[in-house]
Specification:
The complex is a heterodimer of chains A (about 120) and B (about 130). Chain A is mainly α and about 120 residues long. Chain A contains 6 helices and no strands. Chain A has one domain. The two termini of chain A are about 30 Å apart. Classes of the chains: A mainly alpha (about 120), B mainly alpha (about 130).
């Protein structure tokens, strides 16, 4: 169980680092988007702040996941991002569901692996 | 401190509940807005899931604040929402900035009021090992 948590944590960390670094350094040309996905993406760009914010959070979480520091905090920090990634792919871009599903389920598993530390959050 | 916490919690709870009810019952007037804000709004609607998800979260969190149950957890769940409300109003819709600032700072204040419950998240070792 401990080993599984470390493997999943490292894989997700690398995935997040890859996603954020390739965004900041413009490593890949943007894939052509169609339909609602294009409107959604244009909307996110129009907001100005949202993509940089998400990518900074991904970078912080990626570094934390790979190095294993501040994990209990960054598992929570990543949760809103992974919820939105899985929902975006479920509703708009089904081809990305496997990766998004891995990220989302992995995140839940990692939260579960530290569950004892989160118990104090469930007090009134 | 206790009175301030109670006051802020209740006011934010009422605000959140009214925001979500206004959305679900379509009470909100269409805002006249700038080009970017409109593009952003259209984008959110085209994502299908995002607005209902946000408004459901806001409703649950509002009820939790109003009743004072599970406030520690609710603070965390609502933080991404309040952060985004603040940023949207800051960048795209300055009219709403005072309200957004109040909600965001109120949320931070509630974090501060319950800071003891979050200590576990910043310790190096787990409270109890998993296996």
């Amino acid at each position: 169980m401990r080993i599984a948590a470390i493997i999943i944590r490292s894989l997700i960390g690398l995935l997040l680092l890859f996603a954020s670094i390739s965004y900041f350094l413009h490593l890949f040309p943007e894939p052509p988007l169609t339909g609602n996905m294009k409107i959604f993406n244009d909307g996110l760009k129009a907001s100005g702040y949202l993509m940089p914010l998400v990518k900074i959070i991904e970078l912080i979480c990626g570094l934390s996941f790979v190095t294993g520091k501040f994990n209990k905090f960054t598992f929570i920090l990543l949760m809103p991002v992974s919820v939105n990634i899985i929902c975006t792919h479920l509703f708009l871009a089904p081809e990305g569901i496997p990766v998004a599903g891995f990220l989302f389920l992995g995140n839940i598993f990692l939260l579960y692996s530290k569950w004892d530390s989160y118990k104090s959050l469930f007090t009134a | 401190m206790k009175t301030a916490t109670f006051f802020i919690r209740t006011v934010i709870g009422l605000l959140l509940i009214s925001m979500s009810i206004a959305y679900f019952l379509n009470l909100m007037p269409e805002l006249e807005s700038t080009e970017n804000f409109k593009a952003f709004h259209v984008g959110l609607i085209s994502s299908v899931y995002l607005m209902p998800l946000i408004k459901t979260i806001i409703l649950i969190c509002g009820i939790s604040y109003l009743l004072g149950q599970y406030v520690v957890l609710t603070n965390i769940i609502i933080l991404p929402v309040t952060t985004n409300i603040l940023f949207i109003d800051f960048f795209l819709n300055p009219n709403g900035l005072p309200l957004a600032l109040f909600i965001f700072l109120g949320n931070l204040f509630l974090f501060y009021a319950h800071r003891k419950s979050y200590k576990n998240l910043f310790t190096r070792k787990s409270v109890m090992h998993f296996d």
